[in-house]
Amino acid sequence: MANHTERNLSLAAPAAPVRRDSADDGRECVVPIEADTDIVKARKQGRAMGAELGFEAGDLAMIATVISELARNIVLYAGRGEIVVRLLNHQGRQGILVMGRDEGPGIADLSQAMRDGYSTSGGLGLGLPGVRRLMDEFHIESTPGKGTSVTLWKWKR
Fold it and tell me: pTM for this structure?
């Protein structure tokens, strides 16, 4: 799989919007998430944007899986939030940013939530650790009582 760069696993508040920097090419989609049907919409949008950038089928499947997992967590734990998908172009590298963010209950113990096998919903506990493995870079912020923001990057090879 990919080499991963973890960007600080912190408990800082996720209130700040996705920041624009020199890597942005300006194309972004924000999908509000409140129900299972929104998960499908976000997945389709992410696949379409990844295909537009020229990602191969395997990478498109990974991007869609990540979006599904983040959106499902939003519905399950927060009730509502959003998925942001942004195309990136930085120093000749093209990629995609996927962010799931909400103002739900937050994650009380990030290090525990990032361990394989840990689940509060009775699942297999592959969610957040799994999405981290599928993408190239990973960043999570969560504050109990305020919400969670998970941002992932996938770069074209």
Answer: 0.81
